[in-house]
Each structure stands twice: as structure tokens, then as C-alpha cells.
Amino acid sequence: MTLLSALDDCLDRLAREDGVLVQVEATQGSAPREAGTWMAVWRNALTGTVGGGQLEYQAIAAARALLQGQAGSVAQNAVVRYPLGPTLGQCCGGVVFLRYRRIGTADAPALRSALTDRLAPVALFGGGHVGGAIVRLLAGLPYAVRWIDSRDGVFPPALPTQVETEHSEPVQDAVATLPAGSRVLIMSFSHAEDLDIVIACLQRLRARGDLPFVGLIGSKTKWATFRHRLEARGFTPGEIARITCPIGVPGITGKEPEVIAVAVAAQLLQLAPPQAVPAAAPFQAAGAR
Predict the structure, then answer these.
(1) Contact (Cβ atoms closer than 8 angstroms) between residue 148 and residue 166
(2) Cα separation of 42 and 60, whole Å?
(3) In terms of Cα–Cα distance, which of 130, 227, 216, 146 is closest to 181?
(4) Which strands, in side-by-side order, build the sheet including 213-216?
(5) What is the pLDDT of residues 51-75, one digit of tens each?
(6) What share of the chain is helix, strand, coil (3-state, %, to 5)?
(7) pTM for this structure?
(8) DSSP of 181-199
(9) What distance in Å separates the CA atoms of residue 268 and residue 134, rounded to the nearest whole number?
(10) Cβ neighbours of residue 15 closer than 8 Å, sequence gap 6 or more
(11) CA distance 243 to 239
């Protein structure tokens, strides 16, 4: 049982052996997974899933046939149509189109870029215990995390592929360079820094309106204090209402870092789904070029 994220596991195995990337190219009607979902098939292992059931069973068999160079196997970069109902007996009843690409060590950089580019961006300010718990949880979800702090030496030495760390001093300067569509989580070691980051986010929302979620960790008392200070700086009630504080889905009351992380991740997942982020240019294996 590996504790690596699917992407980490894929890249780790790719350094040692060839595999086949099976990716949902498109769907029609009801389907178990959405376009862009992927699975890597190895000689004796799997990474990820395209939905399970007979669809995945047949996809694994087709991928291993391609991997072993069997006669009559699917062609490199081929897209195969799978009607779920009549052919596979799955109740979904839709149609899934799967693309097959044999991948090797030389494909690792392009594969990493292609698979991370379609992840929803999250900017997390604060390298403390709660921040670390959130990062560990989000690494297993379809998010690319930019983890930011003003202090040196606060980040662990080894992190999942989809997590980037950044030292920013002053910390709020990082807000201007966040990717459009970033979900922002604010939980620095200092209330003064938290306020500076909130102000920078509100200024960016005023100018560009491209941060769909800005969440601030804290109590109702902390938020009341912040709200008065933001009003004093000229932000309108409508602008201030763009900040979510406290963060986390209601009803989860535990204060352990891991409990807060679950509540926050659930709240992020209630937004527009990560899969709504436009995919980058399709990945092509080196052998297909």
C-alpha cells in the first residue's frame, strides 16, 4: 500500500519501467468518470482509475496487450469507444472514449506537466500544523497546491509532485502572481500577516475578480475584528463578504489539524469541481511524436 499520490506513484514507477497511460478522452451520457481522468497500467500494477467495473477490466487488458506488443493490440495513441450499457453491462448506460499511450522514462517531464496543468490551483498561506495537514490531504485530491510562507525553513523536505513551496517576504506580495482561478486559504503564523493577505486578495478581486474562494482561518471574534479594519480601509460590505471566515463546512467542530483539514477540503470540493479547469494541450508520448 503506497502513501504516494497517484501522480507521484506514476512518476516513481516510470523511472523504472514502461507503462501505458489510459485516459478518458470524452464521454457521452452517464459515465463513471469525466474527461481527463487517467490510469497508468504497468506490467504487474495499476495507478489511478478510470471508473472500475468492466470498463476498467477491459481497459487494463487492452493496455497490457499494448505494453507487451501483442498482435492485434490497440495502436499507440488510439482512441477506443466503449458503450457502457449494451457492450459492458454497466448501468451507467453512456459511452466512454479511452485513449491509450505507451509511456517511458523520457515521457516523465511532459507527463508531469500535462497531468498537473489540469489540476485546480490552491494557494495556501501558512506553513504551520493546520497548513501541513491540509497539504497532505489535498495531495490526494485533484488540486495543485502553492504553499506560501514568509519564514525560511518551515516546509518539509519532501513533498508530493503537485505541491510547490514558495518563500515570499512580504508574504502578501505572492497574491499578485497567483494563477487565475486560485482557491486561497489563509492561515499564517501572524494575525497581522493574515490581514495583509486578506487585503491583497480583496484588492485583486476588485481589480480582476478571478479568485473564486478566499478563506481565512479563525473564530467569529477574529473575523469581527478583521471586518472592522477592512471597513476602515474602504472596502465595501459586498467586497468583505467575498471572504469566508471561519473556514470549513459547518457541523465539523473538532480543532485537531487533521479534522480542520477535512472540513476545509470538503468546502473546496463544494465549489465548481476541479475538473472544470481547462485542460492543457493533450499529452503525447515520446513514441507518438
Answers:
(1) yes
(2) 9
(3) 146
(4) 163-167, 143-149, 120-125, 183-186, 213-216, 243-244
(5) 888 999 999 999 999 999 998 899 9
(6) 35, 20, 45
(7) 0.85
(8) T-EEEE--S-HHHHHHHHH
(9) 11
(10) 105, 108
(11) 8
